[in-house]
Amino acid sequence: MALRCALYIRRSEPEKESEKNLTSAENQERFIRRFIQHHEDWEVCKVYHDNGFSAKSLNRPEVKELLCDAESGLFDQIVVYRYDRLTRKPEDYYGRLKMLDRRYSVKIVSATEPFDPTTPEGAFSIGQTILHAELERERTVVRAKDKISSSKQCGLWTGGNIPPGYKSVERKLVIDEAIAPLIRFLFKRYVEIRSPVELAREINNKALELSEEEKQRLKLMNRDRVMTFLKNPIYKGSISHYEKLYKGQHEAIVEEALWDQVHELLKKKPLKAPAVRTPLEFAFKSRLRCKECNRAMMASFTSKKNRKYAYYTCLNKRDSLFCRGVDTNINAELVHRVVTDEVRKILKEPEILDGLWDRLSEKASPEEAYKRLQNIDKAWDLLPTEERNKVLQEFVKNVWISKQGFTIELTPNGSETAETVTIPGKFYNRNHSPQVFVPKENPAELKDPAVLKALVQATLWTQKLENETYANYGEIAEDCGFSYDYVRRTMGLAKLSPKIKMAILDGKLTPNFSVKDFKRKSPALLWKDQEAVFLSEE
User: Fold this and answer.
1) Is residue 311 within 8 Å of 317, Cβ to Cβ?
2) DSSP letters along 155-224, please?
3) How many CA atoms lie within 13 A of 510 on its CB side?
4) Pairing of strands 330-331, 396-402
5) Helix/strand/coil (H, E, C) string of 410-457?
6) Nearby residues of 457 by Cβ (< 8 Å), 6 or more positions away
């Protein structure tokens, strides 16, 4: 019975398409096949090739497949050109590879090293060969590091990725005059704005003037790439080696004084880039005014617990002046929702669509205008933000806000004369919930999820106390994972009058109500006193 052999070939460098001569991998395979031909009872069953991989570990695609096939009994022995082609780590040889012989009777044979792996002397010689290969590799690494260190101390560029702004000419760095001005601009501009994000935007805009080849060399900028450029000492004419700098033999792009100035600024906290406002959050920032103060309302952001909230503020309030209107911040989403609802009402009127068609067809092709108008109200939520804002700006002239509600000036027919729509109501700021607006004529349901949840908990806990499932508030807190104070405050809701409970469930209780308000506003236990406090509020 023929002895089934698997050939393993490894090449450290990946193969190149331009190679026409006999490669290292081809030479290994030819030598191994000639070696097998000298054994009449040997036959090749499979060949494994690893190109561009080191032997420092067994984490190679073809080696993994080789080991799996060996464990499944696909062949009887592995033939290599040299043992260090398979591994140069003694621990790999004496571990995973020796296990193939012990468990699966799969031996490893070298075509150029005449050691018998079945004898103790042969196994020892193979181990020494692998150990010597590892020693030689380590010596090569040390020699290469010493050469690189010496070259850099002399200011020589030792290869690698060519920094944008330079070109490699005869293994030396030469300034690339097409990209070098952008590098100088990058350093000078950083001193002025100190914002890597904003600087990346400006560099990308300037790079539009470059050719496609130059764009590929520079690549698209972002904050991290800008910081990499600013920290690269090669631009001031130096070569870095670990933490040391040496005077380079190439010409500097940036003057050393400018470099030092930039690095002094880098030690400080960089300035934040201007925030990019989304069109949805501030759709009416140029058309929103405080009705009582007759001043514009400023669009702003605030952050809380890693979330951003958009809102409008009267300029009198911003300037610390007395605001006769809404002296609080108005939620931008709330304004957008109220105004959008009014616009969507008029979008359902046929005569409005006809007038809008005439206006849009003057600015766009009939196909584009028809596409924008077709089922525009039904598909409103699916429209892109920019498309929705275009429609809103076609209709909304001004939005006035006061304590009494909204006054919206609409131009549905495209005329300069605006139609006024008044929405009376009241603004409420609820604890731990978004701001709400309650229209006076058509009050919306104001069910606060936090209050509803607390009322349900209080009702269930009261029933369990009556059934003696819990003996006291402490047991409830321990069993449910709440604090004792939270349970005590929540249980106060169970003592509310039935009318107040129904008002909470129906969403008709004042929006200012919260769980803490029962103890703070109404310590009395009489239902009529509670109702006088909560149900009488407007």
Assistant:
1) no
2) T----SSPPTTEEEETTEEEE-TTTHHHHHHHHHHHHHH--HHHHHHHHHHHGGGS-HHHHHHH----HH
3) 15
4) unpaired
5) ECCCCCCCCEEEEEEEEEECCCCCCCEEEECCCCCCCCCHHHHHHHHH
6) 490
Residues 28, 36 contacting (CB under 8 angstroms): no
CB atoms under 10 Å from CB of 359, counted, come to 12
Of 208, 223, 204, nearest to 271 (Cα)? 223
Q: Which residues contact 450 (CB under 8 A, 6 or more apart)?
A: 431, 432, 433, 514, 515
36 φ, ψ (degrees, to nearest 5): -70, -30
Q: Write down the H helix ranges in 347-418.
A: 350-363, 366-373, 385-395
List per-block mean pLDDT (blocks of 10 residues) for the chain, which spans 538 residues: 90 67 83 91 92 85 91 91 87 83 88 82 83 83 87 86 89 90 92 87 84 83 88 91 87 92 82 48 73 82 72 76 72 81 71 52 53 56 68 80 84 69 75 61 57 82 86 85 83 80 70 57 64 63
Kindly list the distances between the CA atom of residue 488 and the CA atoms of 151, 318, 493, 495, 530, in Å, as whole numbers in the listed order.
75, 40, 10, 12, 18
Paired with 400 in beta bridges are 289, 407
Phi-psi map region of 354: left, alpha, beta (phi>0 left; psi -120 to 50 alpha): alpha
CA atoms of 68 and 44, how far apart (whole Å):
17
